[in-house]
Amino acid sequence: MLQFTWLEHDPLYDAEKAWSSKELPVACGSFRLGRTILTEDTKMFSHVVSWTKGMKRNSYEIYPKKGEVWALFMGWDINWSSDSHDHRSYAYDVVEITSDFATGSGTYVIPLVKIKGFVSLFVRSSNEAPFLIPSGDTLRFSHSIPFHRLAQTDRKHIPDGALELDTASLPSDLEKAFTTVNLYSWEMPVRNTEQSQDGAGTNVQDEVEKLNQNTKSEQDNGSEASVIDDNCGDGGNDSSQPESPSFDYPDPEFCNFTSLRSFDKFKKGQVWALYCDIDKFPKYYVFIKSIDPDDCTVHIKWLEHCPCAQMEKRLVQEGLPIGCGTFKVSRQSDIYDCTNVFSHNVEVTLASIGKKYEILPRVGQVWALYKNWSHAWAFEDYSRCEYILAEVLEISNGNITVSCLTKVEGFSAVFKPEKKGESRSAMSIAKNDLIMFSHQIPAFRLTNDNLCGYWELDPASVPEVLLVRKTK
Q1: CA separation for the pair 239, 52 (Å, rounded)
Q2: Is the pLDDT of residue 365 over 80?
Q3: Is the pTM of this model over 0.90?
Q4: Rounded distance, CA 27 to CA 72, Å?
Q5: End-to-end distance of the chain based on CA atoms, in angstroms?
Q6: Distance CA 115, CA 174 (A)
């Protein structure tokens, strides 16, 4: 048996919403996790798809990549959604992607034509140049087509770079469906320029390279943290994504934090924190709907943050996970059959209006705070920030007083209150600045003679740089 989770299209604008509402096919764009099911039918699967992690929770972005082959809807029109039943029988053009998709620009493609006398052998058209499909027209892409790129050594007289396409992803009558060319009359495309409307020549290859450079620049500027797969996997199968350096978290020396999230600890009605797939810290929250002891599964509903200030709204839209504030139960649900994606059981206060929960720092808890935080921070500042660790000492009407913690020499994850002179180093944070709190860290207060009053922190929730062991 094979267990898999469907990806459902997550439309970004009104035209996409109208398209999806009519159940028209969508092969690229933004997707979110859907239903999880079991199957024995592996023949339903076509091929592995390239993807990148989306900015939203449990979201994935699938767009054409350079070198891939895709089918385009022939005569495509975004207004098909208004009369969707008239377009159930589709015709296609087949293209090779010549540049990676770039947000705000799109992607360049070049038409392919079928070689006469072969079942599914295609080559680049010698009569057409690459053209741009704008980023707003991604619904024009019908589906990705698996292929094998041939070399002249594969078969005599076959042109170098010819593509043999998977017939399972093509219409049944290929001779009628696609333009065909005679192998001996076909010429290798050599034209790199096309005439623009004003009569000036445009070097298409230069445009392709320029688009690729822009795409690379955007990826470098918006690089993401490593991913923790929600289904206990290896964080994804996209070989094109750079791997983050691995880090071996030290084992706790006094408290078995793993036992705190064993299956028997989960109860209906609890709120739990899950590790975030953006920065790996426990900033996602879920409401436990039910527990199924027979198959050891946890049924959850996700909590969504309810931003108040304009700054919070902007950061949430950009995909920043926020660790404290007011949250509401969403309609999105999931089932987990492993508990290592969960961090800890969360203390919450039920808000008086609506089914909302307040998740706020409490006295005696340990939290990670953004170091040198300011109201002027943009999303990029949060993604490359440093942290300080603090114990919550006191909560008054308008402020939260915390005591900063410092690493204890000779231990991996033991921290003690930082002192200035004879008193603890404390700082006061206004409740209006709650966004300064990144996430709660599960903590165990030690009672050993030499370590009494110190904290051992769950290494999985502590920034890696703070876990480097200091020796005496």
Answers
A1: 10
A2: yes
A3: no
A4: 11
A5: 53
A6: 11
